Amino acid sequence: AEVYSAGAAYEEALPYYERALEDEAQPDVLFGAAFAAFQAKQYELSVKRLDDLLAADPDYFSAYLLKAQCFNMMEDYKRAYDAIKEGLARDEFDKELYLFAGKLALKLGKGEEGVEMLRQAIALDPEYMEALYALISYFHAEERDEELLELASMAVESGNDWHALYPMIAKAYDRTEQFGKALEYYDKAYPAFSDDPEFLESFALFLVEEGKRDRALEIIKQLQALEPENPQWFDWLQSFE
Q1: What is the CA 218 to chain-centroid distance, rounded?
Q2: Model confidence at 85: pLDDT above 90
Q3: Predicted pLDDT at 159
Q4: Which of 19, 59, 84, 231 is the most buried (most CB within 10 A)?
């Protein structure tokens, strides 16, 4: 079973896990069977094996995350959230549990719960990029710019290259009328997002509003090259000319 799983042949692994479980339901074998079932998209079987595992060993912490992921794939987000909260009740120092709990809470419309869960993940690891990105993306969508910038400044000060965050930081500075800082972060984001039409459109609009028409024209020409079938960029070029 483990050899098949190591080669990503999860469906082939499952019968061997089942044979092993007939002899003795060891926790690691139960988890292996549950993981193979998850990878084979047999989510109900995976949940059954995880329930067996947790009944035998409630402190097998990784089982809670996998169980939540099963329910998430089944689009049963409430049960997924309940499963992840059970895990957090057992292990309050697992950043991955907090991250997944935060994402699920936001999906369920529990905004403040989601924010708190993501903040807990970041408190455990201030350089946890996935949690930072999830929370900053939420603040960006909700236009909670002051909170976004406070969190982003903490991330940027760590000295890492957080280029994935730069477009949202730029937009937050733009919305709060800190135009110099906005331009700084648009420029920082540009090398990584020079082929992203959404970013380029936002950058071009900012440059137009700031009266930087020559630079804006360069960006619009890039947009036209990226999306030659989009008439909007042709119209923009016509208006500039």
Answers
A1: 32
A2: yes
A3: 64
A4: 84
Q: Which of 40-44, 70-74, 224-228 has the lowest mean pLDDT?
A: 224-228
d(CA 233, CA 54): 57
The residues, any chain, with a CB within 8 Å of residue 222's CB and separated by 6 or more, are 194, 200
Chain centre distance of CA 152? 16
- Output the CA–CA distances (angstroms, integers) from residue 35 to 43, 66, 123, 182, in the order listed: 9, 7, 29, 45
Distance, CA of 40 to CA of 28 (rounded, Å): 18
Contacts of 132 (CB under 8 A, 6+ apart): 122, 151, 155, 162, 165
Residues 6+ apart with CB under 8 A from 176: 145, 146, 149
Residues 117, 105 contacting (CB under 8 angstroms)? yes
Q: Please state at what angle helix 111-124 crosses helix 129-141, rounded to 10 degrees.
A: 150
Alpha-carbon distance of 64 to 75, in angstroms, equals 17
Cβ(92)–Cβ(112) below 8 Å: no
Amino acid at position 73, single letter:
M
DSSP string, 54-70: HHH-TT-THHHHHHHHH
27 neighbors 56 (Cβ within 8 angstroms): yes
Backbone angles phi, psi at 45, to 5 degrees: -65, -40
- Report d(CA 121, CA 131) in Å as an integer: 7
Q: Which of 96, 137, 94 is nearest to 115 (CA)?
A: 137
